[in-house]
What does this fold into?
Amino acid sequence: MSEVKKITLPLTKELAKTLKAGDRVLLSGTIYTSRDAGHKRMCEALARGEELPFDPTDATIYYVGPTPAKPGQVIGSAGPTTSGRMDAYAPTLMKVGIRGMIGKGARLDEVIEAMKENFGVYFGAIGGAGALLAKCIKSSELIAYEDLQSEALRKLYVEDMPLVVIIDCYGNNLYETGPNEYLKSVESKHINN
It folds into this structure.
């Protein structure tokens, strides 16, 4: 297996270029949370010529709707949301500077093209591991859209969040290359036996 890369945000263009599909990373730094309702609001604000509630330059968004924090916790369970729900909005947000996205599941070709144009990186988080991922979150601050409750826009500080680069800024897609590499290894075992 490949070595785990420790990376610290913000996700600059230079940092994005060093990441390849299949890389395992431990991510630290400031990220923002948003799901489809929040993405819709952000894109509507941009269409009206308004600024986002945070600086999108080199920012990373985690597609998550965390559960409420229990006493003594920073945040509740924080597992990834299916990323396809944000595909209609992701290209617009990348154009204004958002470079990193964290979620689960495949992305549309239009999103991958926008990633290539804007040096975006799509990180995969493990679905079903929300309680474990929440332990990486060291602070949580509500910054906008409180009425959306779990889908409100939050600013999080994370330390060593375990992720995998699913799609890199060159358009390489682990969901395509991974199965192909596996099938090649299986075929070569059958040929050699």
Observations:
- Helices lie at 13-18, 36-47, 90-95, 109-118, 130-134, 174-192.
